């Protein structure tokens, strides 16, 4: 009878070329390509040892040509176990449902040292063997080899299976038994400990693990599933230098949520180490047949974040994008890390620098296709049953809207990513946004009340923008499909009278944020249209100044914008205080042109009161002195300045800062901050001096704008009318 365990040494040169294998024979064995070699049925295991050798030619002149000295072994490369027992092969096939990259051939299972495929599944195989002993004759039952659909060989009975398993177990106990027992003792310590050599016990494929994800100076937990644990070397001289861990997790793609492979390394460390201090560690630990939670708090944290992530992604998939507010660190930013403001979640895309189309943001990590070869010989549904993570492979938008929507589980939440890609509106660039720092956008329907603009004009703007709030297609007067379907506003007038603020208020009322543009104009049209954003081009005269000969670059800019504007199907606001400088072709494409005149004294008082109300509403520890309210309404020091809305805002902001400093430096310091008349008087005096200087130096702003051909304000109109009337009277007197 052949030995149940056979040993063989395979000799290779330094290029891993085969030099010698097995025993030499003095006679020709007569091997042909069609011969089959039978493995004795009594053989359970083959242990193959691969060694690297070197040889030297014998150089004595009388030596025969080609004669050699015996070769010498340079190093032992590795050992490999081949499981030959058909009963054990069938048992592994029945028990192990997930082990990527491990193949099971018809006649053997090949496993490299340290035999992790065998070691990590010994407990389940032993339980399977014990269950088999309760059946008579050939194995049967739901999980028996007979039910796996394997064809091509007969499966032994329970007795043979137990005998072969005992041989395998004896070999494992001899090589690993004491080490495993010692490691289990370390798990029972408080806190549980682990060694580098035995860390594989923590990372069986399919194990739920956690690890840290770093963003700038902060760190965030992530959850994943182990798919591979393998010894690797970062230096050829060291065999056990680090464990390579392939982990799959969920990642947001442009049109789906899919599995992605994430690689982490655990470098060799001496002695023992707390499991919870490892770079990767399991969420639970099996100790004495009991699952012990290592980080229940982190599990709860990931569940909460995962639920929020999927709620956000449902909305993103439903609308194509989602506007949110954000207060946190930006992923992908090297300079300004912190960002507070609105953002549009649009995962997986960003603007190409060479054209106006989208392209996918490619992650460096490959897709995890869950190709586990252990089920490769199974048929149909049985093979699909082996794919344990099928529901996590590709989650499409339709997964949430179909008749039988995807039922999200705790594992979905556990595997969800900590961030979603999107567009930071204030930064005008794409970044990753941490889910924990994302909050729903709150639209302000009352913001229109703060505008100082005639009601009939405001009603017209809100009526025109209303049709863009839903997806229904409005009637188009243009005979060319998709042309002229946008809505363009031009707001013109002197500085600080509310032109830009009007566009922002309309967007707040509509529930979308303006996608401000200061870079290359045409590239942003597709983004604004896709996201349903209101696009604002502030100070439009800078970009669309009247074309003239000899200005090829500026003329090309205006022409390119005109072509893009024709097919833009969104809302566009242009603001300018230099209407006379904008090209006539731009003017002809505007749907509604609204002039903003200088603020009246009554409008200025309303603006002051709005800022007073906002301060009291936003900060309970701030107050406005009643004397200040009377000061801004009636005192000539303020009313004579004729401040515009922007100047009023800046002056009040400065007064608040002075009040904060006064409260801080008072003896004793004051808890309540009161903005007083004295805080604003100094600001008003400096403003009056500066305005007088500018008027003496360059003349009034209205006059300068008129002379430059930029605009005609009311002051200029009145003076021009007075001049015309005087000339008319003079002519009448002469006649």
Automatic annotation (TrEMBL):
GO molecular function terms attached to this record: ATP binding; ATP hydrolysis activity
Residue ranges of domain AAA+ ATPase in the record: 485-598
InterPro entries named among the record's database cross-references: AAA+_ATPase, AAA_lid_fung, ATPase_AAA_core, DUF7025, P-loop_NTPase
Region annotated Disordered, chain positions: 361-380
Database matches in PANTHER family: AAA+ ATPASE DOMAIN-CONTAINING PROTEIN, FAMILY ATPASE, PUTATIVE-RELATED
Name of this chain's protein: AAA+ ATPase domain-containing protein
Species this protein is from: Hymenoscyphus fraxineus
């Amino acid at each position: 009878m052949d030995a149940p365990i056979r040993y063989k040494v395979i000799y290779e040169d330094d290029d891993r070329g085969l030099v010698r294998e097995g025993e030499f024979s003095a006679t020709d064995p007569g091997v042909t390509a069609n011969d089959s070699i039978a493995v004795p049925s009594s053989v359970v295991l083959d242990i193959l040892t691969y060694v690297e050798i070197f040889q030297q030619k014998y150089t004595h002149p009388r030596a025969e040509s080609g004669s050699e000295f015996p070769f010498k072994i340079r190093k032992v490369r590795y050992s490999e176990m081949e499981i030959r027992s058909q009963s054990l092969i069938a048992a592994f096939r029945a028990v192990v449902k997930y082990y990527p990259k491990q193949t099971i051939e018809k006649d053997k299972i090949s496993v490299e040292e340290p035999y992790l495929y065998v070691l990590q599944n010994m407990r389940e195989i032993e339980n399977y063997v014990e269950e088999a002993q309760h059946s008579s004759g050939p194995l049967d039952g739901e999980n028996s080899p007979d039910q796996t659909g394997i064809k091509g060989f007969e499966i032994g009975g329970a007795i043979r299976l137990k005998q072969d398993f005992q041989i395998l177990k004896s070999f494992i106990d001899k090589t690993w038994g004491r080490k495993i027992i010692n490691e289990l003792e370390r798990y029972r310590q408080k806190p549980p400990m682990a060694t580098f050599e035995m860390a594989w016990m923590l990372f069986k494929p399919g194990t739920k693990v956690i690890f840290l994800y770093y963003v700038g100076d902060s760190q965030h937990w992530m959850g994943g599933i182990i798919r591979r644990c393998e010894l690797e070397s970062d230096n050829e001289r060291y065999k056990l230098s680090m464990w390579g861990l392939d982990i799959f997790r969920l990642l947001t793609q442009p049109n789906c949520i899919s599995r992605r492979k994430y690689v982490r390394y655990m470098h060799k460390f001496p002695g023992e180490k707390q499991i919870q201090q490892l770079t990767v560690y399991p969420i639970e630990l099996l100790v004495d047949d009991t699952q012990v939670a290592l980080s229940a708090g982190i599990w709860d944290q990931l569940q909460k974040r995962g639920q929020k992530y999927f709620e956000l992604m449902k909305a993103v998939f439903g609308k194509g994008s989602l506007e949110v507010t954000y207060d946190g660190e930006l992923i992908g930013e090297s300079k300004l890390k912190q960002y507070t403001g609105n953002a549009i979640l649009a995962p997986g895309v960003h603007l190409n620098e060479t054209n106006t189309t989208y392209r996918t943001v490619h992650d460096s990590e490959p897709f995890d296709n869950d190709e586990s070869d252990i089920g490769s010989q199974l048929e149909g549904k049985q093979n699909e049953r082996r794919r344990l993570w099928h529901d996590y492979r590709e989650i499409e938008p339709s997964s949430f809207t179909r008749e039988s929507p995807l039922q999200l589980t705790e594992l979905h939440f556990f595997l969800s990513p900590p961030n979603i890609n999107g567009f930071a509106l204030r930064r005008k660039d794409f970044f990753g946004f941490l889910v924990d720092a994302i909050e729903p956008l709150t639209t302000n329907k009352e913001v229109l009340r703060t505008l100082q603009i005639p009601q009939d004009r405001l009603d017209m703007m809100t009526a025109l923008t209303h049709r863009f709030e839903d997806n229904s297609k409005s009637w188009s007067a243009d005979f060319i499909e998709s042309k002229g379907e946008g809505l363009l506003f031009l707001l013109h007038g002197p500085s600080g009278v509310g032109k830009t603020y009007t566009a922002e208020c309309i967007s707040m009322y509509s529930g979308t944020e303006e996608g401000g543009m200061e870079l290359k104009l045409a590239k942003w049209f597709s983004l604004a249209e896709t996201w349903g954003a209101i696009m604002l081009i502030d100070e439009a005269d800078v970009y669309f100044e009247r074309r003239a000969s000899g200005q090829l670059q500026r003329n090309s800019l205006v022409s390119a914008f005109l072509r893009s504007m024709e097919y833009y199907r969104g809302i566009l606001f242009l603001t300018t205080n230099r209407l006379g400088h904008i090209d006539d072709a731009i003017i002809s494409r505007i749907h509604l042109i609204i002039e903003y005149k200088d603020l009246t004294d009554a409008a200025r008082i309303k603006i002051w009161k709005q800022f007073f109300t906002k301060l009291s509403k936003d900060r309970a520890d701030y107050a406005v002195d009643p004397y200040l309210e009377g000061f801004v309404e009636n005192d000539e020091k303020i009313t004579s300045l004729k401040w515009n809305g922007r100047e009023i805002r800046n002056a009040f902001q400065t007064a608040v800062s002075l009040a904060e400093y006064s409260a801080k430096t008072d003896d004793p310091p004051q808890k309540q901050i009161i903005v007083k008349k004295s805080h604003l008087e100094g600001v008003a005096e400096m403003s009056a001096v500066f305005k007088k200087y500018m008027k003496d130096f360059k003349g009034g702003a209205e006059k300068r704008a008129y002379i430059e051909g930029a605009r005609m304000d009311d002051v200029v109109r009145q003076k021009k009318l007075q001049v015309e009337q005087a000339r008319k009277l003079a002519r009448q007197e002469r006649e």
